[in-house]
Amino acid sequence: MNTIPNTLIDWYTAHRRDLPWRKTKDPYAILLSEIILQQTRVDQGLDYYHRFLETFPEVSDLASASEQEVLNLWQGLGYYSRARNLHKAAKRIVELNSFPDTSSELLKLPGVGPYTSAAIASFAFDEVIPVLDGNVFRFIARLLCIEADPSNEQAKKVIRTFLESIIPKEDAASFNQALMEFGSLQCKPQKPNCETCPLNSECIAFKQSKVSSIPLKKEKPKRRKRYFNYLVVLENGKILVQQRGGADIWENMFEFPLIESLEALDIEDLAPLIPNDILKNASVGRYFRRKKHLLSHQEIYSTFLVLNLDKEVSIEGKKWIPFAELEDHPFPRIIDKFLEENSLLEGKNPRFV
Description:
Elements: H1 4-15, H2 27-36, H3 42-55, H4 59-64, H5 67-74, H6 81-96, H7 103-106, H8 114-125, H9 134-144, H10 153-166, H11 172-186, H12 204-207, E1 224-235, E2 238-243, E3 254-255, E4 258-261, H13 267-270, H14 276-279, E5 282-294, E6 298-309, E7 319-322, H15 333-341
Parallel strand pairs: 1-6
Antiparallel strand pairs: 1-2, 1-4, 2-3, 2-7, 5-6
Helix pairs in contact: 1-11, 2-3, 2-8, 9-11
């Protein structure tokens, strides 16, 4: 087993992807990459990484931005709590007047867990500590034939202990990068090419023909179904929006006035539920029924009812914004896509008017 580190690093040298965060020791850039890549593929996250560094080149720039600016830049990436935690972490780092340089101190930052703290400490500060993300868990679980799911704390403890016993003190960062890349590209979740794997002679799961069954798959919880009926209220080049509150999905993002129902509604069922201060001044336009929008634990079924007002009315908790200013407000992808399809993000009159 003591040949594993050298084999991994040799494999990594030959097969690693050319990724920008691997060319820097800047802890802010590494923090940014790690937060973006939580729940996100590399090819999807790459543009966001560049965009954030161009907009907020230093951690102090991110800390001084408004939450709305951060959410707006994050728009489309999903799991928006990551953006809020990233913003809070930047503020905390500025308050400390220095970047935490150990895994134990990094772990105190908002949104930074054991894996992220270890990754930053290793890649930016050369701390000799192994990383353990989903790809690493799968790879080592197969190597040691640990038949457990990735949430199993005892299994994670065994894997960490094993990695601590083989991590090279003189090149821990390269070893960790190799671990993650090997799990991502070689020891893949589905159909790994075990016959050409440089570690197949060491892999107990391969010898026992158990690779495909490790790690164990945790049963996914059933998604909660929700029915969102949006009122697209228009008046002379402006649109009515409201900001979502906390303790729910899409916290602090903007949306159209919403009627949430317990089941799918037809337009006839929806009409009596429209607030009177909107309905009394409106003429009903087009009605859009959309496909479901999947989140990790929820299924959102949405409809959009267009209402044209003949005059602007003041409605508590809501505000009017011109079409041209829509891009300055962060919207959930479900609404952002509706705006794109109807040319509203280009500041034009919508196609349905």
